[in-house]
Specification:
Main location: membrane
Strand content: 5-15%
Transmembrane segments: 12-30, 42-63, 96-120, 140-160, 187-211, 303-322, 364-394, 406-426, 484-508
Distance between the termini: 50 Å
Keywords: Cobalamin, Cobalt, Coiled coil, Lysosome, Membrane, Transmembrane, Transmembrane helix, Transport
GO molecular function: AP-2 adaptor complex binding; clathrin heavy chain binding; cobalamin binding; insulin receptor binding; protein transporter activity
Helix content: 55-70%
Pfam families: LMBR1
Amino acid sequence: MAAATSELLTGWCLFGLALLAILIFSWVYVRKYQSRRESEVISTITAIFALAVALISSALLPVDIFLVSYMKNQNGTFKDWADANVSRQIEDTVLYGYYTLYSIILFCVFLWIPFVYFYYEEKEEDDGNTCSQVKTALKYTLGFITVCAVLLLIGAFVPLDIPNKKNSTEWEKVKLLFEEFGSSHGLTALSFSISSLTVIGMLAAITYTAYGMSALPLNLIKGTTSAAYERLENTEDIEEVEQRILRIKSKCRDGRPLSSRDRRAVQQLEERLRTLRRRERHLETIEKSWWLKFCEAIRPLKIVWGVFFIIVALLFTVSLFLSNLDKALHSAGFDSGFIILGTNLTNPLNMLLPVLQTVFPLDYILITTIVMYFIFTSMAGIRNMGIWFFWIRLYKIRRGKTRPQALLFLCMILLLIVLHTSYMIYSLAPQYVMYGSQKYLVQSNKTIDGQPKNVTAFVVKDCDADAPEDQCIVTRTYLFLHKFWFFSAVYYFGNWAFIAVFLIGLIVSCCKGKKSVIEGEVDEDDSDMSDDELSAYYC
């Protein structure tokens, strides 16, 4: 009993420390990237809160797995205190935790973030009447609220009946779990709205996370170009542009005006010259900084981390491929959302987690690390690509120079990606996400000297779809992910797209050369107002 209490306290302590770390990280991350010239209190608070909610939501999955696993001993029996009522209370607590956080996410995505975004946009255009700015922001936000209301209404009345399959007794068993899970129309409506946002999060993960998983490790391995070499090249470019401007202007020495074509050429060259001189100032600053010397000193460590991250990315991709292949070969098909009960084709991650379960809390540390890995690679993808609307780049994410609107977009995208992260983890380790480390007892006849005897023995087995309902507790995460079969089907095809984009991003990242030491800090098409804010922290 004392050991069990110790494990529980350890789990809650780790969760508490994770919450504290999330709040500190959210504050540091937003303050690190926000523009010092355009920072606003309301947008800063909104970004920090939204980022913290995203990270806290991602931490619910390890907690859910831990709680269902903690209720059973390693010999397959329930712990003394884990009777039916206590188990139900724990399940309900986790479920309410999900709905609380997901309700906050709906509030952020459909009300708070859009309102703050449009309010700040109006403030830039009309710097006078605050009441007018609030009214205009509310008018635009009303469109988001309408979309949310429509999703809630559809979710409240959408039919959940799944087409019957012949010889699908296991599927019938899961259907009963779904019927028991959240029978209220209100909870169903919330679940449908979150699932709709998860589809958008899937598209964001395909775009940003898949690319970030390839770009982040390869950037660490390849490093950046030399600041001294870049400065030498930049000086040569400045001299060349100045000479071209002088050659064009020499045409009007006899008093004749320049042609319209020459005037346009001079204007473009002068803009190019201003950009090059800004680059010169940035390169001069970084070349003299102690931070560059520190980055050069830790270069071997960055290569090691890059190799480790690319191995992890390939491990995830192989696991995801095998899991999707298993669904394609052994699931009940499209009409069931490609849901599979049990694992027919094992993958590296599914093999590793049972081994780590023997030493508490290594498996929970690993699953938490995987979740955070997806979050950080998503951040890396957004930071490298910027925020796009189809083929139009809206904002760049730059250290110390990111506009408030871009930070709000960043946090909203991360909120949506986090919603899809749980399904990604389930795809990587379906058996573990469904039951954790639970085991159950199977009765069998004992054999002595090759002859069956009337001696009853119990064998300990890992929980799976064949286990009795009263012996294994399914995580709330699993039931929440598969409440609507048609969303599960979309996620299945999204996983194939994720694998394809990762492989394409890996090829592109391998073919690209080294990044500039001031990558993204000075661009000719840069519309930010903070080009002249110099920062010495490049690496």
